[in-house]
Protein 1
Amino acid sequence: MKKAKFIPWKSKNLFSIIILFFILSGISIFSQNVSLPVQQAGSIQHPASLPVRQAGSIKNWVLVIHGGAGGTIGQKMAEDVQLQYTTKMTEVLKAGAAILSEGGTSLDAVETCIRMMEDSPLFNAGKGAVFNEEGKNEMDASIMEGRTLKAGAVAGVTTIRNPISAARAVMEKSKHVMLIDGGAEKFAKNQGLEIVPPSYFYTKKRWDEFQKIHYQEMYHKPDSVKNHGTVGAVALDSHGDLAAGTSTGGMTNKMKGRIGDSPIIGAGTYANNNTCAISCTGHGEYFIRNVVAYDVSARMEYKRQNLQEAAGDVVNVKLKSQGAEGGLIAIDRNGNIAMPFNTAMMFRGSIHPDGKIEVKIY
Ligand code: ASP
């Protein structure tokens, strides 16, 4: 049989070539549009809702802090008390921003901000921590680095001036993630961290709150004083790295030895460069049972929700439906922020590279 010769300029063949050209160029355009970002070995796939970030392309940092959620609907703190909180939070945000604007790490900014709030008697962390049922201060803290997924935590500590720094030391200087009680204190001392007598943490305000709640609970009266608080910070640095930290005295009149969500990675704190950084505040038992911080990250990773949707659904739908009070602060890997809460108020604030500071209570 005579073979058909391929002569391109013959009209039939030319038509086939043109069709073929359009098909091939269509495939290449299409494949550019749907291609997923190049994955590092072992890294997770980026949520589709987040634009792909090229390494090193982020120049902008972001910092968000909280000083606890709670309050009673319809009741507001006195103006001068509100001012004390907003002034302190502004100072904290500026200190964190000074680190981030110089190219410092999100981990340093988070630790610095939390130390400042631990040193302030205004917040339920460090000095100003609430009292347990025995009239003692037992504190919990944790920190996590989004780039490496490394984390550190301490729980039930009574003599470490800055529990967040002890949590960071556990992360960086030990082979463990969490140390508790005397073991954590011994480790912190060996690391050169400041150890103080338990009386350092006393404040009259917390003692009076404790007396009131202790009395109410003894007689099974309803809890009219909201007995929680906590501090936290999340940051994205100019290298594109996320970090999160949380520190607390827990809940007033808690049982001796009770540990809340704050030192539990995935419950009160979580950071992952592929999704977001989260720090929670609220009724810890619910936050543990719902693995709240990780739930926000998992929703972004698996359900492809964006940060606002993921954080909002967890706090205002899931937790609320269970009667769980609280809120969280969050930053995603592109610098978007969310600060949902389902309580009357949450001390919260953010700062951006243009110097824009927002500090809110209600
Ligand atoms: N989540 C903390 C705890 O349960 C308390 C709080 O944030 O208000 O220990």
Note: Residues 7 and 13 are 7 Å apart (CA to CA).
Protein 2
Amino acid sequence: MSHNILKGKKGIIFGALNEQSIAWKAAVKAVEEGAEIVLTNTAMAVRLGTIKELAQQCNAPLIEADATSVADLENLTDKAMEHFGGKFDFVLHAVGMSPNIRKGKPYTDVNYDFFFKTLDISALSFHKLLQTLYKKDAVNEGGSIVALTYIAGDRAMLGYGDMADAKAMLQSVTRNFGLIMGRERKVRVNTISQSPTATTAGSGIAGMSRMLEFTDKISPIGNADAEDCADYITMLFSDYTRKVTMQNLYNDGGFSAIFLSALKNKQDEHTAGKNQGSCRAQEFGKAGWRPEAHRGPALQGQADRSRAAHPASGRRQF
Ligand code: NAI
């Protein structure tokens, strides 16, 4: 149901590759809520993905840009301003990629050329984008810029490789450029730290479906999916969050606030009033614990959809 909370607002959405993409859901939601948008992705993503369908559905121009190229970002900003007839109000940066993870290189044996690429695509691109928007004074006062991050950017985690360092840098750029954008332009800059989500990028991490299951069990209200993230992004684009800036905002069902918790399952629900505080964390630590044994139907569905959508997606990253 639409509440028209983005009525009259205009913005650019990066990173819609296919229907699973968080950016895809965000684009659809923004238009539903009354916004006009411009879509962008790399030439390769336009060729290999289905973003053209989204552009049609949203009645939005599609302007190719590699987010690591300042020239492309300048061209994109100019064309978007031309299309909108002036400044715009929001931007979503939903861009990430690690060649090391894609090629299965562990954190203890990274290729440093790849590492630079990871940082350039997944973090520096956000600085390049903000600097371009700043120099061109392209965003209206009260505007909102959002990038997507993951908890491995602020907590140690095995398996996320050099993307963890890229996300830490992305969050740092958000604070430092956010300070300037806020003081000088009254524009907000935030990151949303999203639950593991079944997308092309997400499905590339080794053990992704097991992680989805685990975090869904641990999070008090379960994982946030791509639609949940789109709702949060829409809220951050809207005037309802006009004083929220320079923040890393968790959209993860409470996962990030937990130190130790019980695994949720049917038995816990049954014993809840009788045995408050009974903690099954030992089970998590127990050798041989397998999330499969605790799989819930909702999560099984999300993991299965991910596998069905990307049967040969190889190792990518979220
Ligand atoms: P996705 O694979 O649908 O989106 C990633 C996008 O990045 C693709 O559209 C791709 O074409 C684009 N991209 C890659 N290199 C680019 C470049 N040089 N220039 C411009 N665009 C480029 O996957 P998803 O999950 O929707 O990813 C969006 C964002 O959400 C990423 O920043 C990701 O790290 C973040 N995120 C994803 C999570 C997940 O579990 N899927 C969890 C937390 C954050």
Note: The domain at 10-257 is CATH 3.40.50.720 (Rossmann fold).
